[in-house]
Amino acid sequence: MPIDRPAPGRPHVTAAVLAGGVGARMGGPRPKQLLPLAGRTILERSVAAFCAAPQVDEVVVVMVPDLVAEAEKIVAEGGHGKVSRIVPGGASRSDSSRAALRAVAHRGGGDLVLLHDAARPLVSGRIIASCVAALAEAGAVGVAVPSSDTVVEVAADTRGHEVIRSVPDRAVLRRMQTPQGFRLDVIRRAHERALADPGFVATDDCGVVLRYLPEEPVRIIPGEEGNIKVTHPGDVAVAEVLLRTLEEER
Ligand SMILES: Nc1ccn([C@@H]2O[C@H](COP(=O)(O)OP(=O)(O)OP(=O)(O)O)[C@@H](O)[C@H]2O)c(=O)n1
Ligand SMILES: C[C@](O)(CO)[C@H](O)COP(=O)(O)O
């Protein structure tokens, strides 16, 4: 498939759509990224968002290994010409991020990668553009929104009841979203170091950089409440309402 070339002097930008999860919390016979959302699968909507972004040169899809052929069909039928590769994911989200990094192993360390949850199909062009723009200065960029709820840390008491242990200052708390963008040399080094740690666990890629490359600041840019992660039953209905609202606004 033809891949756009970046303008001379600017780094090549690959978006990796991570769709390697099984959707245990959603339940159902098939992973949630294959559920329809107003007529198109959640996976296709995520892929389409990055294909439509002028800042993105190429899209890689990381899919549940048994469903790679299905993802190929979705991409081919949708005519998403920026998709260059569809590769099998791993057992954890971090394994799937590493599969994406392997798929761009031929790219230079100064090129960029945006790692995105396929389960966030409502990501906006504004978020993608801001993420790429911030990478002109930062090696790692996360998208996040403030918390409108009070967030507490909990622990079990002596009888096993959950009790509050602390109430962190809400003003400094953010809820992380995706995409999370990186210069390739930064995210490669962070994941290499993480691989060497037998106690490694991470729920996102910015966390991998923070932990294993503490000298690299992770810049935060504003996300959007509408950039939800379809996680639990009921979230598809919420996403459909949000999608309708967004389409009416355009
Ligand atoms: N081994 C994995 C696990 C997750 N993901 C992707 O990472 C994103 C965020 O993960 P999550 O919402 O947790 O998806 P699942 O892992 O599928 O859900 P669950 O944890 O409920 O099983 C999703 O797009 C998911 O497909 C992935 O590519 N590979
Ligand atoms: C990356 C992420 O979407 C940021 O909020 C989130 O950490 C993914 O977590 P999950 O447990 O894989 O849903």
From TrEMBL:
The record marks 25, 32 as: Transition state stabilizer. It catalyses: 2-C-methyl-D-erythritol 4-phosphate + CTP + H(+) = 4-CDP-2-C-methyl-D-erythritol + diphosphate. The record marks 170, 229 as: Positions MEP for the nucleophilic attack. Pfam families: IspD. Keywords: Isoprene biosynthesis, Nucleotidyltransferase, Transferase. CDD domains: CDP-ME_synthetase (cd02516). Its EC number is 2.7.7.60. Signal peptide: none annotated. The keyword Repeat does not apply. Pathway: Isoprenoid biosynthesis; isopentenyl diphosphate biosynthesis via DXP pathway; isopentenyl diphosphate from 1-deoxy-D-xylulose 5-phosphate: step 2/6. The keyword Amino-acid biosynthesis does not apply. GO terms for biological process: isopentenyl diphosphate biosynthetic process, methylerythritol 4-phosphate pathway. It comes from the Bacteria. Belongs to the IspD/TarI cytidylyltransferase family. IspD subfamily. PANTHER family: 2-C-METHYL-D-ERYTHRITOL 4-PHOSPHATE CYTIDYLYLTRANSFERASE, CHLOROPLASTIC (PTHR32125:SF4). Catalyzes the formation of 4-diphosphocytidyl-2-C-methyl-D-erythritol from CTP and 2-C-methyl-D-erythritol 4-phosphate (MEP). This is 2-C-methyl-D-erythritol 4-phosphate cytidylyltransferase. It comes from Thermobifida halotolerans.
